[in-house]
């Protein structure tokens, strides 16, 4: 594709031993939930579209998401292994997104990790891009990234790191408040997806799939 290619993940860049191990700072998790301790200076990707695609105020956002989920049809068996949800502003696609996420209700308490894939709208990509961040933030709190799983995925062809692809991207961010409200605490593996083959995407999903992953 036209435009600069994202750089490949350097060896060991995502390995646990290279994570920040400085003093701890407290970052709130979803409204009403527990608070987690994170190392001081942790690299957090801030919310980019709060106040645009969804409410910026955490109380209003929590109430909006709760109301959308409550209005959606209850989950029907079997419990899903994957979900497809729209990523427009909540005023446009919130009810449809909620109807998808409500189906994951039977997985509450069972899922510890979410692999999230969304199209890259602003940066041309070949393959899939991970961020170098250690957490993604929304008004409901910070979601930690699963660095071990990211390091595992980074070994696959076509997986790169490109923070520019994630900086303004809304396709992943708008899904997080639903997941935060529904699942509470979980770890995230976020991929911005560009020109990627079905086989390449399948290889990533197969590498990360287990009984505790959505």
In terms of DSSP E residues, the strand content is 15-25%
Strand order of the largest sheet: 4-9-5-8
Rg value = 17 Å
Summing up helix and strand content along with how strands pair, one would put the structural category as alpha/beta
> Could you give a short account of the major beta sheet?
4 strands, mixed
Overall form: globular
On the 0-100 scale, what is the average pLDDT? 85
Put simply, the count of helices is: 7
Question: Residue share in helices?
Answer: 25-40%
Order of helices and strands: EEEHHEEEEHEHHHEH
Explain how this protein is built.
The chain is of the alpha/beta class and 214 residues long. 29% of the residues lie in helices and 19% in strands. It is built from seven helices and nine strands, in the order E-E-E-H-H-E-E-E-E-H-E-H-H-H-E-H. It has helices at residues 58-71, 90-101, 147-153, 163-167, 170-173, 176-183, 198-208; strands at 24-28, 35-39, 44-45, 113-119, 128-130, 135-138, 141-144, 159-161, 187-193. Strands 4-9-5-8 form a four-stranded mixed sheet. Strands 3-6-7 form a three-stranded mixed sheet. A hairpin with a 6-residue loop joins strand 1 and strand 2 (35-39). Helix 1 crosses helix 2 (90-101). The two termini are 30 Å apart.
Write the layout of secondary structure elements.
Elements lengths: L23 E5 L6 E5 L4 E2 L12 H14 L18 H12 L11 E7 L8 E3 L4 E4 L2 E4 L2 H7 L5 E3 L1 H5 L2 H4 L2 H8 L3 E7 L4 H11 L6
Parallel strand pairs: 3-6, 4-9, 5-8
Antiparallel strand pairs: 1-2, 5-9, 6-7
Helix pairs in contact: 1-2
């Amino acid at each position: 594709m036209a435009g600069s290619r994202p750089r490949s993940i350097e060896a060991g860049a995502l390995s646990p031993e290279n994570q920040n191990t400085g003093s701890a700072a407290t970052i709130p998790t979803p409204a009403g939930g527990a608070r987690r301790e994170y190392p001081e200076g942790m690299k957090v990707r801030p919310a980019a579209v709060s106040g645009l695609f969804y409410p910026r105020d955490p109380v209003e956002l929590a109430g909006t998401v709760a109301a959308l989920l409550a209005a959606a049809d209850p989950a029907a068996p079997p419990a899903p292994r994957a979900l497809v949800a729209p990523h427009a502003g909540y005023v446009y696609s919130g009810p449809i997104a909620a109807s998808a996420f409500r189906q994951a209700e039977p997985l509450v308490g069972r899922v510890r990790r979410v692999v999230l894939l969304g199209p890259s709208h602003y940066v041309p990509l070949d393959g899939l891009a991970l961020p170098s961040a250690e957490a993604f933030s929304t008004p409901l709190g910070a979601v930690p990234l699963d660095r071990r799983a990211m390091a595992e995925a980074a070994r696959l062809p076509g997986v790169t790191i490109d923070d520019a692809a994630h900086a303004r991207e809304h396709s992943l961010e708008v899904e997080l408040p639903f997941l935060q409200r529904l699942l509470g605490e979980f770890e995230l593996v976020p991929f911005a997806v560009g020109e990627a083959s079905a086989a390449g995407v399948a290889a990533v999903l197969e590498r990360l799939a287990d009984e505790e992953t959505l």
